[in-house]
Amino acid sequence: MGDRNVLHDVTDATRRFIKLLDADQLEHAVRAVADDGLRHRWGYAPGTRPGLALGDLGRDQRKAVHGMLATVLSPHTYAQAATVMALEDVLDRQEGGHRDRHSGDYWTILFGTPDGDEPWGWRIEGHHLSVNVLVADGRVSATPFFLGANPARVTYRSRVVSQPLQLEEELARELLERMGPAARRLAVVSDLTPQDIRSSDSPRVVPSEPVGVTPAQLDKPAGELLVDLVRLYLDRLRHELADHEFARIDQERLHFSWEGSVRRGDGHYYRVQGPGLLIEYDNTFNEANHIHSVWRRPSHDFGDGLLSAGCDASRHAVALGNVRND
To answer: Which residues are CB-neighbours of 127 under 8 A, at least 6 positions away?
Structure first.
């Protein structure tokens, strides 16, 4: 029932958006789901994208885009995403406007439309936000899922006013503190941080050999915190989707690693890796006040796992048909 509810909500919200578009907007918004080159060309840097920009849409159309997001995201993550978009205006003000940033600089592109039984999907993306949705065979995929924040933290007299990705940092720090010195020496694999998340905006991720500490090397409270950290990223999706994704996780084969300083205010990076799972987080730019974070499913990003399963099923059906016809 839960999966059907999600499918109904996502489909209904997407149709509502499509009905609000005129012919010219539809032409710019819709591409073929089979255009893998475009579907896999995602990013989180500022810049224009294919599709329709929020700033060029009418009020009802913008609300419909937000409605699409809200059908896939959990309520707290929708609030994070809305805050990330609003930060573009804050950042523009900090920079004196010379890069002409604006909270309307987020694009929506559709891959196919929710009519019939063919796969379809959409991407909503701009600076520090990328949500990639594909629907096939009654199921919903939503990775890569990127959230970033700049400024990551706004303060007043050393008190936090805004920090949309606070839990992504705090849970990882709590895990480091809870695991104890011996396990921490295994978890902290470098004193230096990478320039950015290592997977970047690559269309394909080939995971490196996992490093760091494993659940078997942690006591029970620390092991539970590691699972909580993974769950935080999966819970970016509404609970029906997150529960389904969580059921895939092999909790015993997770690896957690940290790079950089463990002192607050210094640059740092962490990664959680397991079969079919990659989570990366870094906070290194702007004196450690600029976060990038991503959840990916190697070999299944962009709904490719659903698409390949559908192709396999179709080939199987054709083969059975041929047998019956002989």
So the answer is: 44, 45, 46, 47, 88, 101, 105, 106, 148
Q: Give CA–CA dist 310/321, Å, rounded.
A: 16
Contact 51, 109 (CB under 8 A): yes
> DSSP per residue over 194-232, as a string?
-SS-TTTT-SS--PPPP-SB-GGGS-HHHHHHHHHHHHH
Helix (H, G, I), strand (E, B) or coil at 74: coil
pLDDT of residue 326: 29
Q: What percent of the chain has pLDDT over 90?
A: 91
For residues 221-249, average pLDDT: 97
Separation CA 290–CA 276 (nearest Å): 27
pTM here is 0.93
What is the overall mean pLDDT for the chain?
A: 93
